[in-house]
Structures are given as structure tokens and as C-alpha cells.
Amino acid sequence: MMPDSDALDRFLARDHERVSAPGKTIVLSHGGVRPRAIVLLHGFTASPTQFIRFARDLFARGHNVLVPRLPRHGYGERMTDALAGLTDEHLRWVARESLEIGRTLGEQVTIAGFSAGGTLALWLAQRESFDRAVAIAPFLGVPWMPNSLMRITTNALLRVPNWFIWWDPVRRERLMPAHGYPRYPTHAIAYLYRISNDVMRDAALGPPKTRAVVVVSNSGEMGVDNRAIRALVRRWNAHGAAIEHRVLRGMPPSHDIIEPEHAVALADRVYPALLDAIDPTRRAGGSRALEQPSSIKP
Fold first, then answer.
1. CB burial class (10 A; 0-12, 13-18, 19+) of residue 161?
2. What's the confidence (pLDDT) of residue 283?
3. What φ, ψ does residue 13 adopt, rounded to 5°?
4. What is the CA radius of gyration of the chain?
């Protein structure tokens, strides 16, 4: 049986001439439908290259792998203002389409994502029935703001002019990695908040439709709200969902724990543990994080 090439071709046609080579959607296919397909959703302002190491190793394990480009991401001009037009509907659309493409590539589908991609994985898990969802440091809020204020903040941000903020106001456009954007627009953050709000609200009403959900958080997190992550797990578990929450401990203060161009030693350290969370059928090895059980606690 062959994957639906027409649907995949239409999906790949989104990568127009302004998209750089590292920014294009990645498809690693064995040429037919495999027992499992894995969809990897990259983070906000990043690109599919963020997950290239995972994609290659998962493909080598026999899986078909899709790493979709999020809308308006991956342009060759890093200072583009393309993200100024990003909305939550763009993100919801690519999440749903990625799942549908994944279903043409595998009998079972795993959706895994990092940061904003992790939020989309959780959003899909709440609404769709597929085999496994893995959210790595999902964006459900920011550490310095109570989650109860997220909706008010979202509405306020969308009422004022849209402006760009540097991820690093010192390095500015020199910030690496080269395949990501060094700044972000405030309206896009508000739209991400909107999806996060949906996830938190719906978790209070019922369990996810996807049975196996793993949430991975970093105890040294600086960019997303670990309190909100714990609250989400509690809400789903209160409905009998048995969500697995893995906490990476002993990490330095950081958010981007998977980008080799950003922090090579950190990415190497957590890589086997994250690979195991995504594909537990074959245990990853060669890492102190797995050799020392205390480094990952439920």
C-alpha cells in the first residue's frame, strides 16, 4: 500500500520560492504505509530543521516521518515580517492537515511537538483520536504571568498595534540558529495564547481523545509556564486520562533544549530521553540522562 501522494504533494506545494532549503517541510518515507508514522511539529519562529536529527533517527528505525513547516515560517529572509499575519487558524489548519497526512503514511500516528508545536500536539490530542501525542515544553503560558490572566492578555495584545520583539535584544539579528527568525510579533503570541487557552479550558471539561499522551517539561524552564503544564496534567488526570508527565531535572535555565545550533551540549544531553518519549518501542541509549533514572522523574 502506498501513501496518498496527491495529498502529500498538495501539502508540500505550500513551500514557495521564499522558503529556504532548511525551512522546507521534511518528508522521510520508506515508499509505503508503515506501521507507524511520526509527525514532528517545530517551535515558534523555528523551522523543520529544528527536528532533523530526530527525523533521521526515527526514519532509521523504520518509521515514516513528516516534519511540516508551520505557516509563514522558514523563509530565507530571517528579518521577514511574514509572521505579522500569522493567526491561530493558520496553526490549527496545519496541525489538522499534518495529522491527516500522517494517517496516509502510517497505520498508527504519533504527533510530537516542541514549544508551540507541543501546544498544537496537545490541541490535536484533545480533539482527535490517534495513537500517541508527545508535547515537549509546550507553550501554555509564560512563567511570570498567572495562567488566569492569559485570556485578558490575549485580547489586550490583539487590540493594540502589532510590533516585533527581539528574542535576544543584545544579539538581535545575529541570534542563531540561522534557520529560525530572531524576532517575533506580539499578535502571533496572542494567537498562540488563544490555542493554549482552548487546551486549558477543554481539559477542564473532559479527557483527550488520544489515549497515550506524554508531556515533557524542563525543571529549569525559562520560557514557558511549568505551573500551567502541571495544571493541564492534573485536569486531564482528574478525568481518568493517566497522562504521563516526565520532568527533565538538572538542566540549566533554558527553553530551547532541542536545537543543536543553540546549545549543542544541552541538546545532546536530553536527546535520548526525548527520542524515547517519542518512540518508546526502542529505547535510546548512550546518554547519562537515561543511565541515571533520577534525571527523568514522573
1. exposed
2. 58
3. -65, -10
4. 18
Average pLDDT over residues 128-142: 95
State the CATH number of the domain containing residue 94.
Answer: 3.40.50.1820
Measure the CA–CA gap between 298 and 296, rounded to whole angstroms.
7
CA within 13 Å, CB half, 45: 24
* Full DSSP string of 100-128: HHHHHHEEEEEEEEETHHHHHHHHHHHH-
Q: Which three cell numbers stand for residue 10?
A: 498538495
CA 246, CA 260: separation in Å to the nearest integer? 21
Q: Whole-angstrom Cα distance, residue 41 to residue 109?
A: 13
**Residue 83 has what DSSP assignment?**
G
Q: Nearest 5°: phi and psi at 164? A: -95, 145
Cα separation, 89 vs 107, whole angstroms: 27
Instruction: State the amino acid at position 65 in one-letter form.
Output: V
3-state percent breakdown (helix, strand, coil) of the chain, nearest 5: 40, 20, 40
- Which run of H or E residues covers position 52? helix 52-60
Joined grid coordinates for residue 277: 518519549
pLDDT at 295: 30
Q: Are 210 and 178 in contact (CB under 8 A)?
A: no
The range of the structural domain enclosing residue 134 comes to: 5-297
Counting Cα atoms < 13 Å in the Cβ hemisphere of 156 gives 5
Residue whose grid cell is 494567537: 191
β-pairing, 106-114 vs 34-41, is parallel
pLDDT digit string (tens) for 189-205? 999 999 999 999 999 99
Structural domains of the chain, count:
1
Is the pLDDT score of 216 beyond 70? Answer: yes
